[in-house]
Amino acid sequence: MQKTKVTLIYWGLSFFVFLALIPWVFHPTAAHYSIQVLTIYGGIVVAFLGGIIWGWEGAPASSKNIWYGVGFSLLGLIASLLTFINLSASLILLILSLQAFLSFEKKNSTYFQANIKYANARNLVTNLVTICCITSLA
Description:
The chain is mostly helical. Helices cover 86% and strands 0% of the residues. The chain is built from six helices and no strands. Helix 1 (2-25) packs antiparallel against helix 2 (28-52), helix 2 packs parallel to helix 4 (87-108) and helix 4 (87-108) runs antiparallel to helix 6 (116-137).
């Protein structure tokens, strides 16, 4: 199961990298759309990550964690919707959401704490996606 999770994490990263490279290669119109898609995709990922909190094995089944899950899902939705109003603010919210979830996962997920390969992949990919968002702000 861990191998599958790590593989899917890297596949998800590849789409972020692809979308972040488009502005450097293609016409500015395509660049704008690719950054919007990157932000919407990132919002979907944050919402998904918020939802997986409910299924964490061994995690304290507290209503507090469930509310955190709802909060992260709402942050993902807001980042996606904000894309059409203020793209820069949406990217910044996405960066903050991804880093906040990583910090939350480090502290609260027993799976994260027990599986070093998964933990390393999550750290690396979250930081690389953050770099993709930062370069898209440029």
